[in-house]
Amino acid sequence: MDTITTTKFLLLITLIIVNVSFMHGGAPTVTESPDLRRLSIMDAMNHATEAHRQLLTISSSSSSNFVHNSLDDRQHDLRAEATSAWYDCAELYEEALGHLNRSLGSTTTTTTTNPSSSDTLTWLSAALANRQTCRDGFLDLNLTTTTTSLPRVMDDFSRSLRNALAINAAAGGGGGGRKLLSAAAAAGGGARSSSTPPPVFPWWVAKSDRQLLEARPSGAADVGPKAHLVVAQDGSGDYSTISEAVAASVEMRRGRAARGRRRFVIYVKRGIYKESVEIKKSMNNIMVVGDGIDATIISNCKNVRDGFTTYRSATFAVSGHGFIAKDMTFENTAGPTKHQAVALRSSSDLSVFYRCSFKGYQDTLYLHSMRQFYRDCDIYGTVDFIFGDAAAVLQGCNVYVRRPLPRQKATVTAQGRSDPNENTGIVIQASRVMASAEAYLGRPWRRFSRTVVMQSDVGGIVNPAGWLPWSGDFALSTLYYAEFMNKGKGGKTEGRVTWPGFHVMRSFREARKFTVGDFFDGDAWIPGTGVPFDSGL
Length: 537
Description:
Layout: H1 3-23, H2 34-59, H3 65-70, H4 76-106, H5 116-140, H6 144-147, H7 152-172, H8 207-214, E1 229-231, H9 242-253, E2 264-268, E3 271-274, E4 277-279, E5 286-289, E6 296-300, E7 316-318, E8 324-332, E9 344-346, E10 351-359, E11 365-367, E12 371-375, E13 378-381, E14 383-388, E15 391-395, E16 398-401, E17 410-415, E18 425-429, E19 432-435, E20 439-442, E21 450-454, E22 457-458, E23 480-484, E24 502-504, H10 508-512
Parallel strand pairs: 1-2, 2-5, 3-6, 4-7, 5-8, 6-8, 7-9, 8-10, 9-11, 10-12, 10-13, 11-14, 12-15, 13-16, 14-17, 15-18, 16-19, 17-20, 18-21, 19-22, 21-23, 23-24
Helix pairs in contact: 1-2, 2-4, 2-7, 4-5, 5-7
């Protein structure tokens, strides 16, 4: 009996035991059956391991018969694109295995107040996002016939992962409005005075990091002496490119006992850095600080039209957890005719983006997965330009809708929640939405898409319907879109869509689920200077 079959057998036996106990009046909960939680994750891990093995085999050679057959008689350049998509899949499944391994470790705790159950849902949700992203790569490049040749074990992985999500969600309290980081904010956060001047940052931000974040951009005199490395195009720094500094950070931290735990600061001086930067999953707790929005700019032009997957098109991509960026602009200059072209992609858990700008057109800001916080940022785009499957909160941000191409419709968000037990969603709070052409607040990329716009100033050029279907009636009854206490001409809800999944929240109790207090650990997420709101409502 192989490993997958053995795990399935044990999982089935455990389910039978739980059901029999329930029939005899024991009424056990999933929380009382930690073995069931572990077995469900182990089952998903076994399928992910086999899928990863097969994907490595497929992606190892661009001349694989598997790739050639899946493309039929397409041209050689399309074969190269397919090989790139297979490579993405291998990387994404490797990361998914890491998420599952962390999830498995979190099931060893049994205290109900321990935040590990919420962490588990975060990591399982991220694993599912990786699985979806793998398939998306082939669709991006119009390799639809290739998707029929994906290893069957990938479908088995999806089923077992969704099962693990359901079991662990039952243990952690359901699919919406949960505490993601700590049980300390159980009451949803008492209202904190909106006049509190200094920003307060999430608990994982160290004191020294907070001092850097609180400082206004003023060049090397402010940040340089505190930075481990300085990047400057004029030769006054340690390196002239950000990628070189990132690579050097790995070597500088190698062999240290606390490698990856202590913050590593890279200061990037004023300039336009035309490069693609990647902070890999092993590069944890990196902080990149610039001289200010539109002063320090990271720019590139990768895009889907030129043969990159959406995932791989990012100018700046970060996977290592605990990442912080401050006072920088991330842009993709591909333009509106090149379709998907990402300025920043983040899969970084517990990441903070503070006083940053993200400029692009379609798919500008890719909130790929994990827990992310954006504060006092500017986001520019045309179509689905804030998208992904992270649990993300944007506070005090300016959202600028650019004019789309003819026959295109401008949409701000496209949230990618594909399972009702994922703890993901996009919350836009105390922000401004401004458009230069008719726009919509969002459309459902996946069946259980979840987006909330609350306490924000919505410009009058936003269509009165507010939200746009993806295709026909897809997801209209399963999505969760909501608005609460928005202002501005575009914030009026009288003409909004009447979909079953759309809600105009009427009560503070309902809206509180999506405040930073409940949705994302309110005691740690406090307003910054200039945008007054409370940790509650």
